[in-house]
Amino acid sequence: DGGITQSPKYLFRKEGQNVTLSCEQNLNHDAMYWYRQDPGQGLRLIYYSQIVNDFQKGDIAEGYSVSREKKESFPLTVTSAQKNPTAFYLCASSITNQPQHFGDGTRLSIL
Amino acid sequence: AQSVTQLGSHVSVSEGALVLLRCNYSSSVPPYLFWYVQYPNQGLQLLLKYTSAATLVKGINGFEAEFKKSETSFHLTKPSAHMSDAAEYFCAVSRNNYKLTFGKGTLLTVNP
Questions:
Q1: How many other CB atoms are there within 10 angstroms of residue B108's CB atom?
Q2: B residues 64..103 contacting A (CB < 8 A)
Q3: Which helix (H) or strand (E) holds A54?
Q4: Which of residues B28 and A75 earns the better pLDDT score?
Q5: Residues of A80-89 as b/e, b for ≥16 C-beta within 10 angstroms?
Q6: Tens digits of per-residue pLDDT, A16-72?
Q7: Which of A12, A108, B14, B90 sits at a 20 to 30 Å CA gap from A83?
């Protein structure tokens, strides 16, 4: 079945540590996105990529970094500069003029 | 800039009752509008989308939404709630069917 796989489902980070969240899709979608979800806040866009080797900042990019070396993969690194990283992170993908498809998310917590 | 306002962070209905979840948007250009549903600890699933073809949009699971330009609204309805409809619902707007701006969500509770 085609879809978006996010791993791990749960992730714990120590203070001052960088962590990387994985997002892989086999839908052959050109565009990929990362969102952060906090209770009562909806989803906020962190980064997005329309094509391999290119990506743009979203509304809350500070403290995060991404790469897009392959069409299928769009990993998100939460750096130590992100002071409040505890959240539910959602990855999505889409093709031009079609709605976004979402993965099942990664829940990040601070130890 | 575009924005979405979902009126009511929590809506509670009885099983079999009408479901009405409200969404108002602001957009400088004719928008694309979406409703997504999220079950606990899962991603978002598309319920329906408006892309200017018709003002009344039918989606999955018996949901539908009506685009009203004069009211800048895109409310989601279902005639008869089912226990399985309990979830969080998000309205989203886009200028280009691409980058989405989400509302803060409405949690729907269905009482037996």
A1: 21
A2: 90, 97-100, 102-103
A3: strand A54-57
A4: A75
A5: eebeebebbb
A6: 899 999 999 999 999 999 999 998 889 999 999 999 999 999 999 999 999 999 999
A7: B90
Distance between CA atoms of A52 and B90, rounded to whole angstroms?
Answer: 29
Q: Which one-letter amino acid corresponds to residue B105?
A: G
Query: Distance (Å, rounded) from C-alpha A57 to C-alpha A48?
Result: 7
pLDDT, residue B97, reads 65
**What is d(CA B103, CA A59) in angstroms, rounded to the nearest whole number?**
14
Mean pLDDT calculated for residue range B40-55: 88
- Chain A CB contacts of B105 below 8 Å: 40, 42
Cross-chain Cβ contact B98/A103 below 8 Å = no
Residue B56's pLDDT is 93
Both tokens of residue A99? Answer: 């709605």
